[in-house]
Write a structure and sequence with these properties.
Number of domains: 2
Strand order of the largest sheet: 2-8-7-6-5-3-4
Distance between the termini: 44 Å
Oligomer: single chain
Number of strands: 13
Strand content: 5-15%
Structural class: alpha/beta
Largest sheet: 7 strands, mixed
Number of helices: 14
Order of helices and strands: HEHHEHEHHEHEHEHEEHHHEEHEEEH
Shape: globular
Length: about 400
């Protein structure tokens, strides 16, 4: 493939969505052409499996780990391939050794995987699950740092919030955690692939990520990253039979008494191998695609579009994300003046086939490289077309 330089050039790498204006990547990505072609090739292999040699059994997971390691500045042996972010957080919850009274901190309004993972640990191990409210409009590093106590074992939050797009200063939280011996779990589902990142700069102990958003991969994909120093400290637990301490070679596998790999591979999801797995073949192509496009370009492109959105919002609507683009991830949210009008606006956009999301009372707009200013203009025109929703009132002061 020839070198592609601009967002407009990358736009051609998707099949055109002709029946809608799609601005909902934060909910589910539209797969690029290369990923769909990879699935088609895998389907052909499944149709005639005897044409595929056993030597390719581990090629897709090996390539995915290599691509992800480049994307986040990690080592490939620190990466497990999972079915989403939840499986990574669950892995942390189960491989740590807990004492009654250990504290887990998350933020108010976090994505529900945090509650679903950590709340049951209160009954299971006597852990205290603490939910921290923001001091101001958006959760900040200071909010989390001020909530730390000597009993805090884990802080587990999102890098970019799903409900308002705010970007956490993860490095500050990580430094405060490590200063008192706490661990930091960071969900990068709404940033990895669209926000440049390096695990050494983020400072987290663990990253979890769903693949079907900014990694442009299918539903049921994701990864879990663990800092090398934690890999040998994990409690023993079940592992998938291919995730053993052997070479990535089908003929090297131990079929009698396998032991788990010392690498993060021990937390690979079941069936996370072979060319016949549609999800893996698509993820292989998609992650490579994102790596070639570059999270830097994606973030720059998206922030420009969201800045444009905020500039052109009718006066009856207000941004619900940080106005400073450096404080946002790859998308933005807005509301009308009341929850009822916000809901009506959302329904209006859906009716006009402008596909956005409604999250916690906010309309979330999440473009990608296949979107342009024309798509933002179409959204704005739908809002302007309904005077009932967008009454001319003075803007509220926003921080």
């Amino acid at each position: 493939m020839a070198t592609i330089q601009t967002a407009a050039d990358w736009q051609k790498q998707w099949f055109e969505i002709v029946d809608a204006t799609y601005l909902n990547t934060a909910a589910h990505a539209a797969l690029p052409r290369v990923a769909l072609h990879a699935v088609q090739a895998s389907m052909e292999a499944n149709k005639s499996p005897h044409h595929t040699d056993d030597v390719v059994f581990f090629e897709a997971p090996r390539r995915i780990r290599a691509s992800l390691s480049k994307m986040i500045g990690a080592k490939s042996e620190e990466i497990a391939l999972t079915t989403g972010a939840s499986t990574g957080v669950a892995a942390v919850a189960h491989f740590l050794r807990w004492k009654p009274g250990d504290e887990v901190i998350t933020a108010k309004g976090e994505f529900p995987l945090q509650y679903a993972t950590w709340k049951p640990m209160e009954e299971r191990h006597g852990v205290k699950f603490k939910i921290v409210a923001p001091h101001d409009r958006f959760i900040t590093a200071d909010d989390l740092i001020h909530a730390l106590t000597p009993r805090t074992r884990v802080v587990s939050v999102s890098h970019v919030r799903f409900d308002d797009g705010s970007l956490l200063n993860a490095a500050r939280v990580a430094a405060a955690c490590h200063a008192q011996g706490s661990l930091f779990v960071l969900d990068v589902s709404q940033s990895c692939g669209a926000v440049p990142m390096d695990v050494n700069e983020l400072g987290a102990d663990f990253l979890v990520c769903a693949g079907y958003k900014w990694l442009l991969s299918p539903y049921g994909t994701g990864f879990f990253w663990a800092k090398s120093e934690h890999l040998d400290r994990a409690r023993p637990g079940p592992f998938y039979w291919t995730a053993q301490g052997a070479e990535d070679d089908f003929f090297s596998l131990n079929f009698v008494d396998p032991a788990p790999s010392r690498s993060a591979k021990r937390w690979d999801a079941a069936e996370a191998a072979t060319y016949f797995n549609f999800n893996l073949t698509a993820m292989d192509a998609s992650v490579d695609f994102v790596l070639r496009a570059g999270p830097e370009l994606i973030l720059e492109h998206n922030r420009k579009l969201i800045d444009l959105l905020f500039q052109r919002l009718p006066k009856g609507c207000v941004p619900a994300s940080p106005l400073g683009s450096a404080e946002r991830g790859p998308y933005g949210c807005f509301t009308a003046r009341t929850p009822e009008k916000t809901s009506e606006l959302y329904q209006k956009l859906q009716k006009e086939r402008v596909v956005v999301a409604m999250r916690e009372g906010k309309i979330r707009v999440s473009p990608h490289l296949f979107n342009s200013e024309r798509d933002i203009d179409r959204l704005i025109n739908v809002l302007h077309d309904d005077a009932e929703f967008c009454s001319r009132v003075k803007d509220d002061p926003l921080k």
